């Protein structure tokens, strides 16, 4: 239960600090929908999703109204479609994506994730088919999100998959050139993907998860910023250890609220509660920015020297506070730095304070990676793949989750702007070193072996 002091603190967070539950995501296992008949498979999927999720949005609204805490996004994640639809051809996979999209619209959720494949150690038939179908599937749908896990600390990096994803991303962007390549903004490439992510575009339901489960993603960068501002306003002499403790205490409160909402939604629907993802996930709104936290800590902008150390402190403090607040922490859980989705980070990139190279360095201590990064449309397939490979290496060697959401904006160059709209925001297009060049390293393919510290049995 929440104490009186926590309730009063939470009311202040709601009134002036942009506290919300960013996402409630229902995970649905589709393995019992499998059929070699494409039409039957789509019917089975539509029936199961509608049956289980028909009350999801209403339950979120009821619980949100009860506590005065808005649930911003209601979402669904499903079993990896590469497994569920393994017998199908690429065109039939696209039909499955359309069914997912139509079903998501019917139950009024914002996004549906799980158009996914797990290929860190190699391709099965369904994996390759799904990956080939991603550009058409994402271009023809509005609510479907895709993810592909191409690396893990235990398996190494599947460089054949990395190279293929470079081409897939470029083609997805090309098919939505009239919208600045937005299809690529719904596609994540992962290393060490968790099984219980509530945040898109990476959400899917892992094979080891229950038949149906509620995962909740909290947020609160505005809450953390205001807590730091108050503390330093009252005592500017506080050191970084004291500030870290403050962030930890704030994350504790936010996580408690998120679990409360998630558990009550799950109880209303009569299904299991899974995990709280306690990530600081920004939006393009003023006052709801991870980048502004860096300024409150005394940096000119995110990206200047000191930014990596500040992000490491922030990420660790968020994890410590959340882990103390809940025994069911999952997903990504930490600090996100998505360029276009954070007004302050996008401005830092526009001003030149945040470069792609500095962003990559910072991903070694954040919770995702190169997230919502717009790059020139002329960037070669090989260079896109090389950017992915570098990010996967950070995840594999550091035994952490990393990912890329790269958007090669068709017809636009570095310094121009890309506009995605809504939660996806807008951003300057960041320059890429050797963007149009060849890359013989990437063309070798094969699998980069797992690091020596992967042997933990």
Please describe what this structure looks like.
- The chain has about 450 residues and is α/β, with parallel strands linked by helices.
- The protein has 2 domains: about 25-190, Anaerobic Ribonucleotide-triphosphate Reductase Large Chain; about 215-445, Anaerobic Ribonucleotide-triphosphate Reductase Large Chain, CATH 3.20.70.20.
- It is about 45% helix and about 15% strand.
- It is built from 15 helices and 13 strands.
- Strands 1, 2, 3, 4, 5, 6, 7, 8, 9, 10 and 13 form an 11-stranded mixed beta sheet that branches.
- Helix 3 (about 55-65) crosses helix 9, helix 5 (about 90-105) packs across helix 6 and helix 9 packs across helix 11 (about 305-325).
- The longest helix is centred in the middle third of the chain and has 30 residues, at about 240-270.
- It is globular, with a radius of gyration of 21 Å.
- The chain starts with a helix and ends in a 9-residue tail after the last strand.
Blueprint of the fold:
Blueprint: H1 4-16, E1 21-28, H2 38-53, H3 56-67, E2 71-78, H4 81-84, H5 90-106, E3 111-118, H6 125-139, E4 144-152, E5 156-158, H7 159-175, E6 187-191, E7 212-218, H8 221-234, H9 240-269, E8 272-277, H10 291-296, H11 307-325, H12 343-351, H13 356-362, E9 369-376, H14 381-398, E10 402-409, E11 417-419, E12 426-428, H15 440-443, E13 447-448
Parallel strand pairs: 1-2, 2-3, 3-4, 4-6, 7-8, 9-10
Antiparallel strand pairs: 1-7, 4-5, 5-13, 6-10, 11-12
